[in-house]
Amino acid sequence: MIFNEIYSAYYNAVAKIISAIISGETDEKKLNAIVSEYAFGESMFSIIPSLKEGKWQLMKPDYTTPVRHIPEMPLTLIQKQWLKAISLDPRIKLFGVELEGLSDVEPLFTGDDYFIYDKYGDGDPYEDEKYIEIFRTILSAIKNRQNLKIEMVNRKGNTVYSRCVPERIEYSEKDDKFRLVTSGCHFIKTVNIARITKCRIYSGETVLESSPAVTEYETITLKVSEERNTLERSLMHFAHFEKRAERHDGYYLLHIRFQKDDEPEMVIRVLSFGPTVEVLGSENFRQLIINKLKSQKSCELL
To answer: Is the separation of the CB atoms in 75 and 83 below 8 Å?
Structure first.
């Protein structure tokens, strides 16, 4: 992996220790605090001893260092290329992130290098200035724990108004849409951000209290065929879900745990594997699959 705090934790911790020693902070308690903050709990038993015993030859037993300058960790070329590739994603503009110093860097990849075959084509308008403004207002309200007053168009095409507490922003990879999860309003819980036409910080007299709903989870069991490399494809497809696989004679059982709110999307995802995947449970999810297939058949889609 190019960027991950797990893989760079030791480097960062040791760099902070060397910086502290050069700055004259040679107290062992201080160095242990650095390890605790920048590495892992068990790192206390490896980093400091490795330094003190000369295994890494970066610190002497008297808490001095042969290193003369404070360590710097400049980005490698491949890191810059990865950042350049990410900067080309239109969604990056939503967060107001400016990646400088990459004008002469070739991207590691572009949108032409891959194709997401199982995603709707009517994603959110990420480059629309009004959408960006609304998104940033919501993001600011979440960070600063402020309430919102929104105007939106519902599924029936009617304009509705709401005062709410913004809890979090979710992203649907399948729909390619962002949605706002709210509380404090009895008739709006989740709304697609693209449906919001106006949005501003609400500071009225009415007190809105945060009351985030308890997340409900559901577990489904899939019988996965060995045909068409289905197991590998399904494990990749559901990579970001909590799951467990069991091997049986001629097939696999895949248990997937997901949020109840994502049930409609999960139905579509499971159906995308066709006859190589069979839903064994839950009974509720199995019935949803049956109803969806009957609906498609009635429309002559099967």
So the answer is: yes
